[in-house]
């Protein structure tokens, strides 16, 4: 089996991957504590943290070298997304890099977008929306890429829309394309819409990776509490009602992480081979992250529902982040449609690929 064929099945990290992930974990451990996360809740955005990330190359890495970026793979980006999810980082990094990569494909990316000095948002809803729509990074983005009928359009606003309070503590806002101060058509017809669909798939993959990181940290918080809390002279972590859910969280982390990396690899290398994987990763983590965070709150008892408990911060984001792109059920339906089309194209005598 050659290296390329092996990589379709093996999603272990290389030394460079581990170094990349370690670098971002170190940065976020130092500059994105839970206190920083709480302090940013009113706006959903920490400008200082964003600037630190961009200075480290978090924005430029997502764009190809021909456009002035570093040409990172989508698998590389999942590693950064995972660390941002682990830290609950209040920055619109996923929206920005997916929008920047879309702009690159449509010939509209420039140096300010590459460096992150101008933030670009993305309408992440899978089902086409007309008129006013909720944009996950709408209150902090300088420009926003949306799909308008058969066109992909870049909108600019002189005054940013007002933030809407939301469960995920995102810088979310209602955006009306008709009120934009500038409007640039990036492309139209099937090629432009296909590029937009690719951006949405990347958004789902990176959001899934972020949720995997969130679940892992949620598990760590719950496990540390379970080791220190005693009942009848033993740590509560030794009880099956606690240890089994914690084991399930570990399975979710590993399974979800591998699924996100697998989806990223296929999008980069064989986008037409397994187009359902992006949706699979997103739907799986959207459901399991909320379950894991809820269990972490249960393990901590009354402590887990207080504003001072870190588990609460993870719980609301586990439930809210997956909704930033609309109903996850739309992704589930798309996965079903892709698989149904593939199976209907297989003759009765031919084995079905799963």
Second-tier CATH architecture of the domain at 203-344: Up-down Bundle
CATH superfamily of the domain at 203-344: Butyryl-CoA Dehydrogenase, subunit A, domain 3
The number of helical elements comes to: 12
How would the global form be characterised?
Answer: globular
| CATH domain class name of the domain at 203-344 | Mainly Alpha
Which stretches are poorly predicted, pLDDT < 50 over at least 5 residues? Answer: none
Q: How many strands?
A: 8
> What is the CA-CA span between the terminal residues?
21 Å
Major sheet description = 4 strands, mixed
Named CATH topology of the domain at 203-344 = Butyryl-CoA Dehydrogenase, subunit A, domain 3
Radius of gyration: 20 Å
The neighbouring-strand order within the major sheet is 1-3-4-6
Task: Assign a percent range to the helix content.
Answer: 40-55%
The secondary structure category is alpha+beta
| Beta-strand percent range | 5-15%
**Would you tell me the overall average pLDDT?**
90
